[in-house]
Design goal:
Length: 208
């Protein structure tokens, strides 16, 4: 998911439009121009964490596969659990995965990110792109992330900061470096690294 604090933005006709738009060349050019800084961080960390292709990955707020599909390409026996409440987004993700012959490398989870149903210590690598600002209780999600991660597993989060036009409502809204760092630490994570990149905050933390 991306810039919204309302599920309605990602369901129905609007959800179908956004699922399609996020896969267009226009969107890819926007990502290159605007999101390039955090994409480089994601690619670097993904290369470090996905070594054998047998890993289990959780993508929180997977949308139509922005992070999920690049990771799925690296999989042999592993899987990417694509978690999103929007059926429109995950339906489009499944269609794209099938088109790229990656359907066996993904698993769709249409559930709350704080109650994934995954086993304890079953995930190697968790990613979340521009989704956490929509959550009213990010601490519950990070507690769940900590639970499902294996020891020495890691989480990568990128989200908005300094977004003055955002009206959060019940959602958390954009993060500061300090806020995300404190959320990681309070959840029990170690080796926390959070930094600002343009108008985004990028955080990496490990379960040790």
């Amino acid at each position: 998911m991306a810039m919204s604090h309302s599920l309605g933005e990602w369901t129905g006709l609007r959800g179908k439009f956004h699922a399609w738009f996020f896969s267009t060349y226009t969107r890819k050019i926007m990502e290159l121009l605007i999101f390039g800084n955090y994409w480089s961080s994601f690619k670097k960390e993904s290369a470090r964490r996905i070594r054998h292709g047998n890993e289990m990955v959780l993508d929180i707020g997977s949308g139509s596969g922005n992070f999920s599909l690049p990771i799925a390409r690296k999989m042999k026996q592993g899987k990417v659990c694509c978690l999103d409440l929007s059926l429109e987004m995950t339906d489009f993700l499944q269609m794209k995965a099938k088109h790229k012959s990656l359907q066996n490398a993904i698993r769709i989870l249409n559930c709350d990110a704080s109650e994934t149903g995954l086993d304890d210590s079953s995930i190697d690598w968790v990613v979340s792109g521009n989704c956490m600002h929509e959550m009213p209780h990010p601490e519950k999600i990070l507690a769940e992330v900590y639970r499902v991660l294996k020891p020495r597993g890691a989480v990568f989060i990128v989200d908005f900061m300094d977004w003055h036009g955002f009206h959060a409502g019940e959602a958390h809204g954009p993060y500061s470096v300090q806020q995300l760092s404190e959320l990681f630490s309070e959840a029990g994570f170690k080796n926390v690294s959070v930094e600002k990149k343009r108008h985004f905050v990028v955080g990496i933390a490990e379960k040790v």
